[in-house]
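Subject: sequence -> structure tokens, single chain

Hey, anyone have a minute? Need the predicted structure for the following. Not urgent.
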Amino acid sequence: RNKAKNVIALSKALIDEHGGEVPADRDQLVKLPGVGRKTANVVLNMAFGQHTMAVDTHIFRIGNRLGLAPGKTPEQVEQGLLKIIPAEYMRHAHHWLILHGRYVCKARKPDCPACVIADICKAAEKTAEMPAPLVPIAPLS
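Reply:
Had a minute. Here:
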């Protein structure tokens, strides 16, 4: 029910306050009904190509578990990841991290033997003695 109400209110706000255009500004986006920082970051990244990091539960876990961007809040993890992820990967990084967290670095039972970054993992609950080999990542074209 809340989602439906928010979609209607969001649509009305976009028409009435933004001339039917989605704003390309985080501060304006989070003022819209049902839009928080994570949703705003997804819109800015996917629709406008801005370098943002939408931190969901998977990315929050990975940032802390791997020690890539430790933080107590999603915004702290976001800021840490923005500092370390090279610009050429920012457009797709949040999707890659979500998929890694969903299918490999799972919350309850991480699949460490299948992990291509197991050798840099700082997780205390490491279960694999032999990490998967590193796979080079080519720059995006």
